[in-house]
Amino acid sequence: MTEINRRDFIRFATVAGASLGFPQLALAANPKVVVVGGGVGGCTAAKYLRKLHPQTEVTLIETKKVYQSCFMSNEVLSGDRTLDSITFDYEGLKRHGVKVVIDRVDAIEPDKKQVVTQGGETFAYDACIVSPGVDFKWDAIEGYDEKVAEVVPHAWFAGPQTTTLRNQILAMPEGGKVIIVAPPNPYKCPPGPYERAAQIAMYCKHHKPKAKILILDPKDKFSKQGLFTQGWSKLYGFGTENSMIEWVGAAGGGTVEELDPSTMTLQAEIEEFQGDVINIIPPQKAGKVAFASDLAEGDWCPVNKLTFESSKHKDVYVLGDASSAAKMPKSAYAANSQAKVAAAAIVSRFNGIEPPDPTFVNTCYSILGEEHGISVAAVYTLDKSSNTILPIKGAGGLSPMNASDQQRKREVSYAHSWFANLIDDMMM
Amino acid sequence: MQREKMMKKKMPYLLLGLAVLFPATAAAAPTGQALAFTCAGCHGTDGSSVGPSSPSIAGMDPEVFIDAMQGYKFDERNSTIMNRIAKGYNDEQIKSMAWFFAKQTLRLKPQKYDAEMAKLGAKLHDEYCEKCHEDGGKPGDAGTLAGQWMPYLHYTMEDFIDGRREYPRKMRRKVDAAIEAEGDRAMPALIHYYGSQH
Q1: Residues of B in contact with A354 (CB under 8 A)
Q2: Residue A375 is inside which H or E element, if any?
Q3: B128 phi, psi to nearest 5 deg
Q4: How do residues A312-334 score in pLDDT, each as one tens digit?
Q5: Which of A216, A279, A405, A424 is the most exposed, fewest CB within 10 Å of its CB?
């Protein structure tokens, strides 16, 4: 069954031979690609464009000098890792021949096929990749804005706010209360708020055993809910009177309407909640540059999922969290997978051939305790007729419920591998 | 019989040769390359994992790769996540990924190991393992041991010994003999030996 037979060999040889007929040389000598955004989508696309088509001149424009990964940033809150350990420079991409420019792009200019930076530099492109990630809808919760977020952090971008939140947790009293306000769907990293609760509990269990973590949620269910509930129960007494973690969903009045930062009070649908530390993760939409460049429709950017080319502007490709890529979640692994599909499609265009059939994977790990990891995975294919990315039936899914301690422990170790390899694959 | 087996073993490499000469450009199904690219987030770019535990799959013998994937797909092999992922691919796709990874160069990173244990492991390897895991366990027709990530080797041996993975009779005999000779030190010693190679 597993051996490769002669018939396969002949079939393959025929296909390979037939492909010789394509006019591969009918392309501009050094096509130019400009990548706006140095996150998972942008970096992976830049690296893989150089890998697949080394004559491509790739310029990546990013506002920050270093990349700080949101994935594994919850582990900074527990003290399990440092912010330094999730901070990376762009030297690796430069070694792949990517030109990295630290500057800000307000909007790209699809009509002129160029990108002008705030610093005044102009970059012409044959293809432009826009991968700006998410932005917040600041008007969703009264009393909460960018300024207030400096003291009531969202910590949904890894960086200074991660440190702020960590320090606030360290400084809160023994029996203090942390409130996490979860966002409505869709948002980046669907299991993130719930892993965050577990990571904060992991710290408190050792250092402030009387502390409480309350999640206020505008949703009635959430990602990996069964596994989170089981893990929280096992590790943090969830469901008992002494539970360290409590979750209030929409039906229980979990939707937060207003924040009073002076009293650290949240007005939710039914009652008020007061916390020593409040972490508000606001509702989300595509990053600013997507709106300024007329790439969005509603909150997100529609794309042709065969190539990730924008449905609104030719030769512009939108990747990752900002794209409307149902049914893939907004995750790092998804952005990495999409970036490779886009890179291959762009190279095909340069070569004057049809884009290849895409294939996608998502894997996502959450770490609930030192030896307790869980995951979700999916393999996707494109349904061209509906322009929908569909998970392949019978594949993927969650870690099993009631798995052995040994399996849960292994998943922690694989979560660390997933992190290290994802970073390596995108920018090293 | 022997010769036929040899031919079958060589066939993938012939195909790989062709794949290198004529990159597949016809758009039919996802290419082996496109499929294999999706593995990199856990197994590293082109299958060389930077660790700490997910295994490198670059340079793997295509048949070993196919056996592993089919084993995961049909839940015949213990795993955490691969049994869920393998179910997403048909036989042709698994084969094309196998060919892709077989032609990749395995890039190894140094690991921390105990030199004394590695020395004992080298001795045990020569005596009990080398016959099937040739050349110190380098990629060959029995999987990659040399330079493989040590936690992964540990999990794998745990699964064999605890009965979660089908244990070839010959291998069980050899492993039992190594444990008979060196006791609890035998397995860690072998793992340190493989981890010492890079």
Answers
A1: 27
A2: strand A372-383
A3: -115, -20
A4: 999 999 999 999 999 999 999 99
A5: A405
**Which residue of chain B has the CA closest to A407?**
B80
CATH top class, domain B32-102? mainly alpha
**Pair type for strands A323-324 and A301-304:** parallel
Match 């013998």 to its residue by tokens: B61
Q: Nearest CB to A379: which of B15, B52, B88?
A: B88
C-alpha triplet A195, A198, A204: angle, nearest 5°: 145
Residues of B in contact with A375 (CB under 8 A): 80-81
B50 in Cβ contact with B44 (< 8 Å): yes
Closest CA to A151 of A314, A295, A263: A263
Task: Give the model confidence (pLDDT) of A387-425 as tens digits.
Answer: 999 999 999 999 999 999 999 999 999 999 999 999 999
Is residue A373 helix, strand or coil? strand
Six-digit token string for A211:
């502390």
Which of the listed CATH numbers 1.10.760.10, 1.25.40.10, 3.20.20.20, 1.10.10.60 matches domain B115-196? 1.10.760.10
Taking the C-alpha atoms of residue A234 and residue A4, their distance in angstroms, rounded to an integer, is 47
Is B35's CB within 8 Å of A422's CB? no
Question: Tokens 């009073």 identify what position?
Answer: A260
Q: pLDDT, tens digit, for every residue of A1-48?
A: 334 443 444 344 334 434 443 444 445 579 999 999 999 999 999 999
- Most B CBs within 10 Å, among A404, A417, A419, A424, to test the B interface: A417
Decide: pTM greater than 0.80: yes
Q: In Å, how far is B5's CA from the nearest CA of chain A?
A: 10
Contacts of A394 in chain B (CB under 8 A): 87
CA distance B79 to chain A (A): 8
Q: What is the chain B residue with the closest CA to A348?
A: B25
β-pairing, A388-391 with A397-398?
Answer: unpaired
Distance from CA of A337 to the nearest CA of B (A): 6
Between the alpha carbon of residue A365 and those of residues A71, A192, A419, B129, the distances in Å are 9, 10, 9, 35
Best residue in A19, A95, A306, A413 for a mutation probing chain B (most B CBs within 10 Å): A413
CB pairs under 8 A between A and B: 164
Task: Using the Cα atoms of residue A323, residue A326, residue A329 and residue A333 in order, give the sign of their dihedral.
Answer: negative
Q: Which of A359, A384, A405 to mutate to test the interface with B (most CBs of B within 10 A)?
A: A359
The confidence score (pLDDT) of residue A28 equals: 58
Backbone phi, psi, residue A244, to 5°: -80, -30
Please report, for chain B, the start and end positions of each structural domain, with discontinuous segments joined by +. Answer: 32-102, 115-196
